[in-house]
Write a structure and sequence with these properties.
The chain is α/β, with parallel strands linked by helices and about 280 residues long. It folds into two domains: about 150 residues, Rossmann fold (3-Layer(aba) Sandwich), CATH 3.40.50.1000; about 100 residues, 2-Layer Sandwich (Hypothetical Protein, Haloacid Dehalogenase-like Hydrolase, Chain: A, domain 2), CATH 3.30.1240.10. The chain is about 30% helix and about 20% strand. The protein contains nine helices and 14 strands. It has a six-stranded mixed sheet, covered by helices on one side. A hairpin with a 2-residue loop joins strand 6 and strand 7. Helix 1 packs parallel to helix 9. The longest helix has 13 residues. The protein starts with 15 loop residues before the first strand and ends with a helix. About 55% of the residues are buried. About 0% of the residues have low confidence. Keywords: Hydrolase.
């Protein structure tokens, strides 16, 4: 069993929960459990707002917005796109076109396949790979195939690098971050995915913007996640929670560690770390 912080209620009052989706809110099979649904209802009844932030494009988040009856703005593309629950864009942070081109060329040279996200559109060079088929099934979105990304570097909210060699991805992340030298935010969002966004577009920025839109102090916000790209929001949160399935370096940035997403860790966190603070 994964290490877990005992359910001690933190002091203070919570007004907003900002939650990651994959690896956090949902199971490895990409499902919401009955316990998670019940916990979300309990949070709502306690007067706490619930929002979602993800490396997914907002279109790929809408299933869970509907299922959990989310009525707050949400943030996709690691904060690069902030939308109302109906998908109306509130704010976008786009990569500089030259930075986007440099990142794409670097990824291709290192054997990592790039995907581009522009507002609600997902652009790929090939739409017949196992990774594209898997992502299409997961996010329920059809990609737009283009022969070449030249001419598509304007208004890029996120570049996703898709690797067939997970062991090499941390090194690619480090080298690309050094190459871009502050011109982009570079974070691994899964064992095979690397996210490149505007330098201010990270989940920490997203959590602060979501709280601001709701007129809530970030110190009254709980953030919960499981991967490297969640660390920026864990650092900003009044209360930070890491999933039991998170790597140790992510847990090191959290005040609390809940159970894994195979053990209803999200629901456990809401019931033990959030609701006692309502």
């Amino acid at each position: 069993m994964m290490p877990m912080t005992p359910p001690v209620a933190p002091a203070g009052g919570v007004r907003l929960v900002v939650s990651d989706i994959d690896g956090t809110l949902i199971t490895p099979e990409r499902r919401l459990t009955p316990a998670a649904r019940q916990a979300a209802d309990d949070v709502r009844r306690a007067g706490i707002r619930l929002s979602l932030v993800s490396s997914r494009a907002p279109r790929g988040m809408m299933q869970f917005v509907r299922e959990l009856r989310i009525d707050t703005p949400i943030a996709g593309l690691n904060g690069g796109l902030i939308c109302d629950p109906d998908g109306t864009i509130r704010e976008r942070l786009s990569l500089d076109p030259e930075t986007a081109r440099t990142a794409v060329e670097f990824l291709i040279a290192h054997g990592v396949e790039p995907w581009l996200y522009i507002d609600h559109d997902w652009l790929v060079r090939r739409d017949d790979t196992p990774q594209v088929r898997h992502e299409r099934d997961v996010v329920q979105t059809t990609p737009v195939r283009v022969d070449d990304f030249a001419g598509h570097y304007e208004n890029v909210g996120k570049i996703m690098g898709v690797s067939s060699d997970p062991a090499s991805l941390p090194g690619v992340e480090r080298k690309l971050a050094e190459l871009l030298d502050g011109k982009a935010s570079v974070h691994q969002s899964s064992p095979i995915y690397l996210d490149i966004t505007h330098p201010r577009a990270n989940k920490g920025y997203a959590a602060k913007e979501l709280a601001k839109l709701l007129d809530i102090d970030i110190r009254d916000t709980v953030c919960i996640g499981d991967m490297n790209n969640d660390i920026p929001m864990l650092k900003e949160a009044g209360v930070s929670i890491a999933m039991g399935n998170a790597p140790d370096n992510v847990k090191a940035h959290a005040r609390f560690v809940t159970r894994s997403n195979t053990q209803d860790g999200w629901a456990f966190a809401m019931e033990n770390f959030v609701l006692p603070r309502a």
